[in-house]
Structures are given as C-alpha cells and as structure tokens.
C-alpha cells in the first residue's frame, strides 16, 4: 500500500462534507466544460440557505448548474461565465449569469496575478500510482486555478480520459484538500455534423488555401467540421495540429493519414491542444495517447508560439462583420452569444506566421427569426452594443460562399469594396449606398 493510497483515504469525503469547506463570501471556481463538477455542484446548491455572497466562476456549461437552478433570484450564488454555451446564454439573457470578458490566452495569468480563488472544485480522472489526478479533457486554465486556490476539491469521475502532456495536465494529491468520488458520469459529447451546400462551397475555397505541411487550428461548428471532413478526404500531406479546441475533425484527419505533425518545428510529432469536446470515440482516442499533447491555454494560444509555425492556417466562424472589417464572433448587440475565446489569439498568431492565414468564415446571410426574412451578415456598421472580437486592424482573410478576400493592409474604401464583393448579391446595392453615405466608397464594383 503506497503513501498516496493512505493520503487518498484520509482526504476522501462525501459531497455534503466536502462543500462545508465553502464559507460565506467565498470565490468558488468550477473550471470549464468537462471540468465542471456535478455532484459537488448539487451539494453546494443544497447549502443555499446556509451561505451568503458566494461568487462562482464557470465556463461553457454542458449540464444545468444547480447553484443557479436552486437560486433563481441570486440571493446566495452569483454565477459568472468566461464563455457561453447555449445553456449559459439563456441564463445570461435572463440576468441570472454574468459574462467575464477575456482574451483566452490571458485566463491563466489572470488567475495567477489578479483573481482570488477560495475554493476550486474541478472534475478529474482517477488518481494514478504516483498520486496524480489528471485534468483530462480540459487542461486550459485548471493548473492556474488550482495553484491559486486556497482549497482544492477534486471530483473524481471514472469516465474522464487520461490526457497526456505537454504540461499542466495534472494535480498531485498533496495539493488537494478533499476528494469526492462521483462514480462514472458520462462526459458531455457534441455530435460531429458537417454543414450544407453553402458550408461546402466555403470549405472548398478554404481547403485550396492549405498547403502540405500546414499547421491547423479549427473552431467548432458545421463549417469547420466541413473543412475538416474535406481535408480528410483530400490528398494533403503531413498536416500539423496546434489548436485550443480539439474536435472530431482532427480525429478524422488523423484516421485518414493527413495529420502527422511530422514537419512541425514546435512539438514535433505531437498534436497540441488545450481542451476537447466531441464524440466518445474521440475521447477514447485521447485516453493515454502519446500522439496528443495537452497544454495550458496560455501556451497553446500564445501568438509568439503560433508564429513559429510556417503556413499556420486558423479557421473560425463569426456572427457579423462590418464594412470597416470589425468582426464580432460573440454577440449581437448587447445579447451575449458565446465569448471572445481565443479567436483574436489565433488571428494575430496566424498573421505572424510565414505563409500563415487567419480565415474568418461566415455565411453571407442569416434568417431573422422575428421577421422571417434573410439579412446580411456583412453590415454597414455593427449593431449598437455589439462586441468587437477582432478589431479591424487584425482582420486578415474573410470568406463567404461568394469568395475569399484579404483585408490586411486595405484602406477603408478597399475593405468596403472587397466585403461587398462577397456579400449576398441581393444585399450589395444597399451596402454600396451605406458605404457612399459613410464616405468609404470610391467607385462601384458593379459590372
């Protein structure tokens, strides 16, 4: 029997006993996505009438947060969120949760240098023979959170894969205050779905921009999935992966022999990532796999690191873009949809890469649910209150189903002309009129 087994037995607790470590006025951290606790969240919610002024940071929730459900008036628990899932978005819209703006690469440093953490509650994989708990599918900022926390409670979930580093992927039992055994609670999954014919048309243009040996970052959604599936079915060779979010598109590329990481100058032969969300099949691929290297997000998203890869291709979605090149990927007016995330990190890093491209891809129109009409995603100016995720000075390549244009170095009239050229044809006349009114239209591109 090892000393770590003895220590484990001394620290293991029932959920109701572990959450007694939380005191009124505390700052509590739940981590992100798959790191968020389930049984501890329920146990803490049950203390609603015993506590006051509990501030809880969370992110990208894929299960209801019981502290919010049990306290809709926020009398005890004030929930805050780094990045919105659909569930979080609904709560934020109801005023039951607040958003925390960030540039994703800065999250660990904010914990190290600015934020208080009284209690961290983080889901982990079972302890190994050396006394380490693995952060599994979400490395991200967990090391920074747990190092800053005065007390750390780990929720051990047997379903959590063991992800190899890299670095920052584990915590030792000697740094843990309490252990709660959650049994085997399935990890949240998201299905791998490719897009429709419009996404396919955009993806075809993007894939043509990817050379052999390129290193890739992909966002989440139907369009990036379509790009990944198309790459997997292509004849591209020796691609690399350096991405904040590990998604099934990369697993598909790997299975088809496209993803080797063989030519990467940094983390050679390794696929680097910060957190993972996808299918159970992908989670099984991650488990104990030395091909993959998990890192904290301040490494993965560091533009200096990204810039060291030649032909780094970053592919992300956005909500809207205006004729000045301001890109919003997180809100529509004051309505928070997701979060800043790491898009600006990769926009900057990919531009610095020799031969690199940051590509923001969007469908030219969307269906307005209130009016039932299609509206342009390319707008004269962003709606009042809309958050700018990527400033116009950092806008690089933009793609719709009508073309791919490079905004870097372009003047205001050139940007307007380029963006109008890839807008939906039915929307171009109105956009030209708006550009003329704003004095950023030199001549008509109509033929």
Protein model, in words:
The protein is α/β, with parallel strands linked by helices. The protein has 2 domains: 3-183, Glutaconate Coenzyme A-transferase, CATH 3.40.1080; 197-437, Acetyl-CoA hydrolase/transferase C-terminal domain (Glutaconate Coenzyme A-transferase, 3-Layer(aba) Sandwich), CATH 3.40.1080.20. It is built from 16 helices and 25 strands. Strands 1-10-8-6-2-3-4-5 form an 8-stranded parallel beta sheet, sandwiched between helices. Strands 14-13-12-11-15-20-24-25 form an 8-stranded mixed beta sheet, with helices on both faces. It is globular, with a radius of gyration of 23 Å. It is found in: Cytoplasm.
Percentage of residues in strands: 15-25%
Structural class assignment: alpha/beta
Q: What would the average pLDDT be, to the nearest integer?
A: 95
Percent range of helical residues: 25-40%
* Poorly predicted spans: none
Q: Kindly report how far apart the N and C termini lie.
A: 81 Å
CATH architecture grouping of the largest domain = 3-Layer(aba) Sandwich
Protein name: Probable butyrate:acetyl-CoA coenzyme A-transferase
GO molecular function, one term: acetate CoA-transferase activity
Domain Acetyl-CoA hydrolase/transferase N-terminal: 7-191
GO cellular component, one term: cytoplasm
List the helices and strands and how they pair.
Layout: H1 3-11, E1 12-13, H2 15-18, E2 27-29, H3 39-45, E3 54-58, H4 66-69, E4 77-81, H5 86-93, E5 98-99, H6 107-113, E6 119-124, E7 132-134, H7 142-148, E8 151-157, E9 170-172, E10 178-183, H8 197-207, E11 215-218, H9 222-232, E12 240-246, H10 248-255, E13 271-276, H11 280-286, E14 292-294, H12 297-300, H13 303-306, E15 312-317, E16 320-322, E17 327-328, E18 331-332, E19 335-336, H14 343-352, E20 357-361, E21 365-367, E22 374-376, E23 378-379, E24 397-400, E25 403-406, H15 412-421, H16 425-437
Parallel strand pairs: 1-10, 2-3, 2-6, 3-4, 4-5, 6-8, 8-10, 11-12, 11-15, 12-13, 13-14, 15-20, 16-23, 20-24
Antiparallel strand pairs: 7-9, 16-17, 18-19, 21-22, 24-25
């Amino acid at each position: 029997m090892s000393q770590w087994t003895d220590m484990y037995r001394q620290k293991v607790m029932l959920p109701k006993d572990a959450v007694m470590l939380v005191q009124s006025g505390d700052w509590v951290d739940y981590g992100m996505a798959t790191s968020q606790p389930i049984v501890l969240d329920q146990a803490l919610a049950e203390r609603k009438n015993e506590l006051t002024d509990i501030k809880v940071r969370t992110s990208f929730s894929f299960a209801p947060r019981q502290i919010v459900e049990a306290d809709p008036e926020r009398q005890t628990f004030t929930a805050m969120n780094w990045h919105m899932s659909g569930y979080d978005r609904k709560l934020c819209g109801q005023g039951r949760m607040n958003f925390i703006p960030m540039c994703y690469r800065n999250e660990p440093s904010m914990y190290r240098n600015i934020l208080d953490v009284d209690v961290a509650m983080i889901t982990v994989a079972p302890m190994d023979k050396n006394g380490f708990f693995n952060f599994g599918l979400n490395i991200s900022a967990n090391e920074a959170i747990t190092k800053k926390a005065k007390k750390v409670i780990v929720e051990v979930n047997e379903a959590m894969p063991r992800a190899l580093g890299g670095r920052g992927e584990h915590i030792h039992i000697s740094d843990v205050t309490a252990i709660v055994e959650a049994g085997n609670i399935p990890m949240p999954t998201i299905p791998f779905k490719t897009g429709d014919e419009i996404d396919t048309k955009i993806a075809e243009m993007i894939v043509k921009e990817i050379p052999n040996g390129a290193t890739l970052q992909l966002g989440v959604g139907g369009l990036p999935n379509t790009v990944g599936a198309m790459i997997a079915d292509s004849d591209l060779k020796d691609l690399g992966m350096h991405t904040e979010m590990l998604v099934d598109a990369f697993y598909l590329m790997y299975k088809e022999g496209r993803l080797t990481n063989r030519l990467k100058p940094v983390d050679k032969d390794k696929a680097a990532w910060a957190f993972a969300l996808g299918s159970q099949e992908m989670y099984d691929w991650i488990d104990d796999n030395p091909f993959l290297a998990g890192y904290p997000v301040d490494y993965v998203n560091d533009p200096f690191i990204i810039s060291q890869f030649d032909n780094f291709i970053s592919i992300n979605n956005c909500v809207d873009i205006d004729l000045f090149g301001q890109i919003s990927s997180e809100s529509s007016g004051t309505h928070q949809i997701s979060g800043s995330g790491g898009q600006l990190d990769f926009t900057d890093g990919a531009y610095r890469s020799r031969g690199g491209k940051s590509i923001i891809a969007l469908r030219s129109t969307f269906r307005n649910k209130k009016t039932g009409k299609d509206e342009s995603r390319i707008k004269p100016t962003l709606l009042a209150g809309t958050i700018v995720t990527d400033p116009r000075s950092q806008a690089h390549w933009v793609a719709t189903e009508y073309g791919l244009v490079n905004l870097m170095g372009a003047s205001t009239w050139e940007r307007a002309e380029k963006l109008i050229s890839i807008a939906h044809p039915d929307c171009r006349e109105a956009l030209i009129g708006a550009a003329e009114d704003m004095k950023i239209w030199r001549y008509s591109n109509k033929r």
